[in-house]
TrEMBL record:
Keyword annotations: Acetylation, ATP-binding, Ligase, Magnesium, Metal-binding, Nucleotide-binding
Transmembrane residue ranges: none
Reactions that this protein is recorded to catalyse: acetate + ATP + CoA = acetyl-CoA + AMP + diphosphate
Binding-site residues, ATP: G386, E387, P388, D410, T411, W412, W413, Q414, T415, D499, R514
Gene, per the UniProt record: acsA_1
Annotated CoA binding sites: R192, R193, G194, K195, T310, S522
Protein name: Acetyl-coenzyme A synthetase
Domain AMP-binding enzyme C-terminal residues, every copy: 530-612
């Protein structure tokens, strides 16, 4: 990207918080001024949300940037903060997790249940020789034992590395090797799309490539037959036989809590390292502030998988440290029918829902009748994370899920940031559809140009973070130099997030996708997000992905892949007419510079396992190259379909 991003999309809609919610909100507008006045004092106050065995001497040590130390000298135990202290406060019988398996089986775990199981798992891991500082890989379906495994590691000071249960032998073994993990915790399998999906065979193959693995702990979930070796132990024979008594030891605030590899949308996965005190402080505070969580009355549901950072911070550590009651669901959103999510919201009376734009757009494609069939009146805050949310998807979410009055918090953050960084506050912010609005109190984000100068309101450029924050990554596991090169070298003294962004005339922030995806058309930098949002604003479109393909006249030309909404007729001439209409629609909405050279109507888009569009592969198709690495692709047949469609369209 040479200079700044063109600002194309105009959005004038505003939504004030409902008065009652604003009145009772956990965090009010004065939090911004308080944090601005003394950022470190603000974070020190938030750290008091936790129980510390030993209070810190210094809030932040930034004497050796970019290597930050937060809450120096402080000690605490993460699992104690998520479990023991709630039980000690008389909340042992409160439901921690309403779990629902894909086949419809359910389990209810109270804080006391979760505490006992975690103590047992901590004892079992200790018996297997796992101690503080050792690494443990976790490769699990979405069952309560996944959270227990993470908490048990935290409890004994072992560093967990959760690997998404859909990843291949290569991905799993690569991550085990990179961290020299000693133990893998897994299951025979989980349920996906109506049938058992095995995990243990992948672990067996990976372990054969990983000599550091001494033991494999296996939860029985599906009951499918599994191969059994010397290193294997059944969870029900070891963990469930262990003592439920376990005293948690405090660890240093900078003790490594977990490694999580970024999804690899762009390059070789990086082992992002998070530590203890600062991470838990920000995960807990943001969960309280951004979702306005009232632990006594709310039922919270985050639809992410624990394999992603969202599952770490907003299924396990944020909600449990706050004593929340939450729903955890094992399976896919359309099993056995496309209303499954809304059934769950209805049945458990979910009040706070946190999901991803990819799911919202999929639901748009399926049609309004599915949410309409359920009672969603319990919902009071809606969240979004993972990609920019297109304004029309935001509006659909508000109308069809949020009964036209529920605040939507569009939360920008990354694996690297550990917790939410930019987001509306539901009781404070007058939201704009598609904007993540402002940095949270205590966070200093900015948009800068090529030279690192702050752009004025109305300008676009690179998103940066100017000051260290408590839950920031501490390094890339085993590779300090890559940490410096990747995040701290592009701009002097600033963290470079890799995302494009703009400030609107009010100074509110709009995320514009990855800098690598920005298109250069006739000398103008144009964001994929804005063109995609223009396409999604057409009533016939559910989802769109846009890439820049080499073009002899304009340098790059815009090629769009578009999924029509369920009811739209695209056969023959109707398809041609729609394509013409869409090209004109983009031109009218954003200006002629953004008019796509070519629009393809497709049934699916290539996405990562976490649901993000892989534009890199679409660029290959648009430029007629052979396809790049597809290993993190959710469904590899999608690319064949698109490539075939591309050929027949010419
Ligand atoms: P990799 O870094 O391996 O390519 P990834 O960036 O997809 O993978 P994550 O850390 O899960 O892995 O995702 C963070 C990225 O997701 C952000 O940098 C941003 O591009 C995008 N993102 C997340 N939330 C939002 C949001 N609310 N608005 C816009 N973009 C978002
Ligand atoms: Mg990233």
């Amino acid at each position: 990207m040479s200079e700044t991003l063109a600002n194309l999309l105009q959005e004038n809609r505003r939504f004030e918080p409902p008065a009652a919610l604003a009145e009772a909100a956990n965090v009010k507008s004065d939090a911004y001024a308080e944090a601005d006045a003394d950022r470190l004092a603000f974070w020190a106050k938030q750290a008091q949300r936790l129980d510390w065995a030993q209070e810190w001497d210094q809030v932040l040590d930034w004497s050796n940037p970019p290597f930050a130390k937060w809450f120096l000298g402080g000690t605490l135990n993460v699992a104690y903060n998520c479990l023991d202290r709630h039980v000690a406060a008389g909340k042992g019988d409160k439901v921690a997790i309403h779990w629902e398996g894909e086949p419809g089986d359910t389990r209810t775990l109270t804080y006391s249940d979760l505490h006992k199981l975690t103590c047992q798992a901590a004892n079992a891991l200790t018996d297997l020789g796992v101690g503080a500082g050792d690494r443990v890989a976790i490769y699990m379906p979405m069952i309560p034992e996944a959270a227990v495994a993470m908490l048990a590691c935290a409890r004994i000071g072992a560093t967990h590395s959760v690997v998404f249960g859909g990843f291949s032998v290569d991905a799993l073994s690569g991550r085990i090797q990179d961290a020299s993990a000693k133990v893998v915790i897994t299951a025979d399998g989980g349920y996906r799309r109506g049938k058992p999906s095995a995990l243990k065979p992948t672990v067996d193959e990976a372990v054969a490539l990983c000599p550091t693995i001494e033991h494999v702990l296996v939860v029985r979930r599906t009951g499918e037959p599994v191969a059994w070796g010397d290193k294997d132990h059944w969870w029900h024979e070891t963990v469930e036989a262990a003592s439920t008594e376990h005293e948690a030891q405090p660890f240093d605030a900078e003790h490594p809590l977990f490694i999580l590899y970024t999804s690899g949308t762009t390059a070789k996965p990086k082992g992002i390292l998070h530590t203890t005190g600062g991470y838990l402080t920000q995960a807990s505070y943001t969960h309280h502030a951004v979702f306005d969580l009232k632990p006594e009355t709310d039922v919270y549901w985050c639809t992410a998988d624990i394999g992603w950072v969202t599952g770490h911070s907003y299924i396990v550590y944020g909600p449990l440290s706050n004593g929340a009651t939450q729903v955890m669901y094992e399976g896919t959103p359309d099993t056995p029918h496309k209303g499954r999510f809304w059934d769950i919201v209805d049945r458990y009376g979910v009040t706070i829902l946190y999901t991803a734009p990819t799911l919202i757009r999929t639901m748009m494609k399926w049609g309004d009748e599915f949410p309409a069939a359920a009672n969603l009146s319990s919902l009071r805050v809606l969240g979004s994370v993972g990609e920019p949310i297109n304004p029309e998807a935001w509006m659909w979410y508000r109308k069809n899920i949020g009964h036209e009055n529920t605040p939507i918090v569009d939360t920008w953050w990354q694996t690297e940031t550990g917790a939410i960084m930019i987001s509306p506050l539901p009781g404070v912010t007058a939201t704009k559809p598609g904007s993540a609005m402002r940095p949270l109190p205590g966070i200093s984000a900015d948009v800068v140009d090529d030279e690192g100068r702050s752009v004025p309101d109305g300008g676009g450029g690179f998103l940066v973070l100017r000051e260290p924050w408590p839950s920031m990554l501490r390094t890339i596991w085993g590779d300090d130099q890559r940490f410096i090169d990747t995040y701290w070298s592009r701009f002097q003294g600033m963290y470079f997030a890799g995302d494009g962004a703009k400030k609107d005339d009010d100074g509110d922030l709009w995320l514009l996708g990855r800098v690598d995806d920005v298109m250069l058309v006739s000398g103008h930098n144009i964001s994929t997000t804005e063109v995609e949002s223009a396409l999604v604003s057409h009533p016939s479109v559910a989802e769109a992905a846009v890439v820049g393909a080499t073009d002899p006249t304009t340098g790059q030309a815009i090629v769009a892949f578009t999924i029509p909404r369920g009811s739209v007729d695209t056969a023959g001439d109707a398809g041609e007419a729609l394509i013409k209409e869409l090209r004109d629609h983009v031109s009218k909405t954003l200006g002629p510079i953004a008019k796509p050279r070519q629009i393809m109507l497709v049934a699916e888009l290539p996405k990562t396992r976490s649901g993000k569009i892989m534009r890199r592969l679409l660029r290959d198709v648009a430029e007629h190259r052979s396809l790049g690495d597809v290993t993190t692709l959710q469904d590899s047949t999608v690319m064949e379909l698109i490539s075939d469609g591309m050929k027949s369209a010419k």
